[in-house]
Amino acid sequence: MSKLSASTARQSLKDPCRFYVLGICSKGNACQFTHERPNESTSSSPSSNVTLSTGHRPESNSKKPSCRYFASGTCTRGTSCPFPHEEPSKAPPSANTLPVPQPRADSRSQTPCQFFAKGYCRNGDICPYSHAKLDTLEGARKQNRELDEEVPNEAHFHDDWTREFGGALVKFEDGGKISKISLPSDFSAIRLNKLPPGSSPISVATLLSSLDVVVSPDNVRVIAQPGMAGCSADVKVEDPTFAQTVCCTTLSQIEAVHIAVPMPRGSGLHRVDCRRVNCSWHRPTRTAWLNFGYQKAAQKVYEQFNTGNYKVLGCTVKAKEPTGSSDYWNPYAWTVMLTDLAGTVEEQDIYQAIPKFHKPRNVVMGEPTYNTEMDYSTTIVKSMLSKFGPLEWWEASVNPNGKRIKASARFFDESHAREAASSLKNKSLPFNRTARLTVGLITVAKFKVSSRIYDVLSERLNSQTPTWENRYKVYFAAYPSQQRYRVLKLEGEDSKLVAQAKEALGRIINGEVARKDGKDLWSTSLGRNGEEFERLKQVEKDHGVVVVRDRRRSQLRLFGTEERCKRATEALEMLIQEGNLDSHVIKLNSDEFQWACRGGFKALTVHLGENKATFDIASTPKRILIGGTNEDYEAALAVIASRQVGVMTTSSNSDQTECSVCWNEADEPVRTSCNHVYCSGCFADMCRSGTSASTEFCISCIGGEGRCEKVLALSEIQEFLSSAAFESVLEASFTSYVRQHPSIFRYCSTPDCGQIYRVANTMVEGTASSPTVFTCVKCLIPTCTSCHSLHPGLTCADHKEVASGRYEALAKVKKELGIKDCARCKTAIEKTEGCNHMTCGGCKAHICWVCMATFDTSSECYAHLNKMHNGAFDHTDVVF
Questions:
Q1: Domain map (residue ranges) of the chain
Q2: Architecture of domain 582-738
Q3: What stretch of H or E contains 680?
Q4: For residue 108, which of 91, 90, 130 has the smallest C-alpha distance?
Q5: What is the pTM (predicted TM-score) of this model?
Q6: What CATH class is the domain 162-264?
């Protein structure tokens, strides 16, 4: 058949359009082929026995299965594919027909393609990895991870009310009371290695139960070690003897190792974090030599590369000055060497970087420093880190223009991060023995600050940031506002420099107290919500500062730039002077307090006028604050003495607008679950007031004239307080608890250290007593947990002798009698006669009586006496 007749035959058969079958035909109705699916053809068609134009061979009686890659849209063979490209039938499957499996989402689609980053992915659109803009994708991933890490969404975050204070794990309950304090010494932990694949916390707990060791699955953390067939698990139990018991017991093929106790991370833990490491190593590089016939052309290319006008694959490279000679007949007389080229650069990439009029006559490429792909090298480095402990997360840089490959990892435990940083620093790499791995331990310090305060401090913080980066090599970040507060972060490799920057940042965000001539500026009227308070807000607005009233300390704390705080201080001084108001405090006894609650305070406010008296029922003892002249103060005393009673107005709780603390109109009111109203500031003061009480710390409602006494839930307290204020209340509760239980806990003997230890001979529930010596992890000072003193090398009795002075008296008597102590066992020895070789009656050591040196044998002692002291007997010098 001729070509013409064959073409006519295909048209007469009305072949289906293969591009329409694939869904990409652009001709529409103008297409000469029929737009029908292959399965739309009827069996009665004359062409049913003829191959349709899909490019396949005629099918045999046993029909081949459809191409699964075509069904998922990823077949790259086109018409050469041996399997039919048919759309999956939408009809219900018959009894003999298996359903077509739906393609599953490929998890690799979220991972950036490293070859696309370099600009030459050979797989194109069918690459399973992401070809999105890497800077956008990487930035979004990093931002989401950091936000999740630093500022968890409180709506989805379950707070277990556990905090770390003083090196202890503190569990809180409603009212801010402490339900339990645990120290690292109360726990012990092990790591079980060589566990069967697929082990779970339940299976590990069951395994340990066979040793009569009861462990909750919640205390088991299974770790899948990379490159290992089995897995490991960390087990922590509140029993100091647990690790010793398990490690001394045979567990078949399973290995048990004693490890440091990993303390849990609650929402308030790890304000200073040292669990992250940054590491980097050189990318593969190569060198190229460019040959020119003339010096002028070589010089021009050299200058263009060094100024950055010529780039190779978008990267700036270094060029060395041309070398050669003026040989007219040599086409390669001059050479320019390019260094630090990426290992993937080829000869054509060099030619493409140079315009035609400057192209070299020849290019010679050197060999790459090593031939390892990035994914393989990052996997190797990750496995090197994982040998020191499990990683919480791992992230490698995908920047194709960098000279080094950079990666970050965060360990679950700080000790593992420190060990990895010290052991792997400058370690050679398996894939490039000439290169070294750079590893640095990152210290991260975090602060929480009110968004309102941050806004007025942002200018000051921005001016301080370059100093931190240039002087301390510490980097600052402020995360977006969430729940009325912001998280500020400092991070750097040098922990000492991070501590210095942390101290500087702390001074800024703590504000400064308004003072004049060394005295705090304060008036009792400023603590109320009347006219003076409105004028206080005007000072904030006029000078761009935030003024926080600290009623407990009778202070005004200012936040803003130094110049603005200075002007605001002058305005506050004028405000107090213009008011000509003095602060007076009247403390109430029980009878006076009952009188005030039954209408006496109402009578006092009527007599003095509005906004001159404040009823503080959160303090101990209860008190009335008078902000006014001396005459107002005297009048208030007279009213209290006369026990005048005002008319008490009754109103439902739902209509109440007076603060339950100050009994004034509530400012920024908050309403508790028991339906009592507080000023937001008064509520915060009431929560802090528990630290001054002599009883157990507990925050309860004082509404209903002090009769409510409902213990407030922690979730409710957290809702009405700023994050920083809530954390400070919990810390105050902890401090109060330690102060009121000196027989259980004590602070480190170093002043202002803050670390606590358990007093000796006090028992943890079901566990042994604490160690007799506590070495502070913060200041490294050893303290005796029995007598709470520093006496290294001495018993408590010996220390008592030394401290009382009796030891010095005894030493004086022994010296007068010629009694000396054995250097080995401290046995007292007296020499009555004979040579200077003595034998201790306690440890049997041989002693030189002259210098008290000890020896194992008598011959060694005599040799010493002869050599150092001219013999074994004393010699009397004769003077002529």
A1: 3-80, 162-264, 285-365, 374-509, 512-578, 582-738, 744-817, 820-880
A2: 2-Layer Sandwich (3.30)
A3: helix 680-688
A4: 130
A5: 0.49
A6: alpha beta
Cα 506 → chain centroid: 18
In the numeric block, the tokens 């194992």 are attached to 856
The structure tokens 């529930």 sit at 765
Q: Which fold has domain 512-578?
A: Ribosomal Protein S8; Chain: A, domain 1 (3.30.1370)
Report the residue count for the chain: 880
Buried b (16+ CB within 10 A) or exposed e, 602-613: bbbbebbeebbb
Token digits of residue 514: 């308004």
Return the closest-CA partner of residue 481 out of 455, 445, 507. 455
CA distances from residue 835 to 192, 416, 824, 841 in whole angstroms, order as listed: 62, 59, 20, 16
Element (H, E) at 623: strand 623-628
Report yes or no: 466 and 442 within 8 Å, Cβ to Cβ: no
Cβ-contact 276, 445 below 8 angstroms: no
Amino acid at 671: R
835, 850 contact by CB (below 8 A): no
Give the pairing of strands 745-747 and 512-513: unpaired
| Bridge partners of residue 195, in order along the sequence | 231
Helix (H, G, I), strand (E, B) or coil at 696: coil
Complete DSSP assignment for 401-466:
T-SEEEEEEEESSHHHHHHHHHHHTTEEETTEEEEEEEEEEEEEEEEEEEHHHHHHHHHHHHHHHH
Q: Count Cβ atoms below 10 Å from residue 867 Cβ, excluding itself.
A: 9
On whether the 374-509 domain is CATH 3.90.105.10, my answer is: no
Longest dimension (CA), the chain: 147
CB burial of 171-184 (b: ≥16 within 10 Å; e: otherwise) equals: ebebbbbbeebbbb
Q: pLDDT of 260-311, one tens digit each?
A: 676 554 433 335 678 899 999 988 889 999 999 889 999 999 999 999 899 9
Contacts of 10 (CB under 8 A, 6+ apart): 53
Going through 218-301 in order, the beta strands assigned E by DSSP cover 220-223, 231-237, 255-259, 272-282, 285-292
**Model confidence over 328-364: pLDDT tens digits?**
788 888 999 999 888 888 999 999 999 988 899 999 9
Nearest-angstrom CA–CA distance, 545 and 302: 57
pLDDT tens figures, 621-632: 777 877 667 778
Token digits of residue 73: 């849209």
What residues does 257 pair with on adjacent strands?
191
pLDDT in tens, 817-869: 888 988 887 788 888 888 899 998 878 889 999 999 999 898 999 999 998 88
Res 108: pLDDT: 52
Contacts for 602 with CB less than 8 Å, ≥ 6 apart: 645, 646, 647, 648
Pairing of strands 512-513, 519-520: unpaired
CATH 3.30.70 fits 285-365, yes or no: yes
Residue 694's H or E segment, with its range, is none
